[in-house]
Amino acid sequence: MARGLRNNNPGNLITTGVVYDGEIRPSQDPVFRQFKTMAYGYRAIFMLMAYYLNNNIDTIEKIITTYAPPHENQTGAYINGVCRATGIPKNRKLEKTDGADFINIVSAISHIENGIKAVKTDVMAGYKLQTEITD
Asked: Is residue 11 part of a domain?
């Protein structure tokens, strides 16, 4: 099983000083966060996307370049994979109201990070948890 799935962290978010709801602290993984449920793991990705939008990181190209920087990843291939999976051009400006697009983007990120398609019910549960906070 992929590490992100074992950790209920489908985005493979690295542990930092920021603590998300549902996060298990301390993590048993030396690098990556662990969450109580997959929904909380998805919620964390959605929260990160909201943070990006608030800081003008508002296209797939900007988001993935920040999320998966070239010094750690094949960022160009990652961007292309998310665009191919979502049908969204890499330079299209995204808005907070583009919920369906973000659900598809987060699903694509999970697929790329873990090698299997995201379970939509888990993604939707994470989106719902996030929107309860940000509405």
From this structure: no
pLDDT by residue (tens digit) across 15-39? Answer: 999 999 999 999 999 999 999 999 9
Query: What's the whole-model pTM score?
Result: 0.94
Buried b (16+ CB within 10 A) or exposed e, 85-101: bbebebeeebeeebeeb
Instruction: Report how far apart, in Å, the C-alpha atoms of 61 and of each of 23, 94, 103, 124 are.
Output: 28, 11, 16, 23
Expressed as residue numbers, the domain containing 69 is 38-134
Q: Per the domain annotation, does 84 fall within a domain?
A: yes
Measured between alpha carbons, how far is 111 from 81 in angstroms, rounded to an integer?
A: 9
Structural domains counted in the chain: 1
In a domain, 55, yes or no: yes
Contact (CB, 8 A) for 27 and 36? no
φ and ψ at residue 29, rounded to 5 degrees: -90, 130
**Three-state DSSP state, 24:** strand
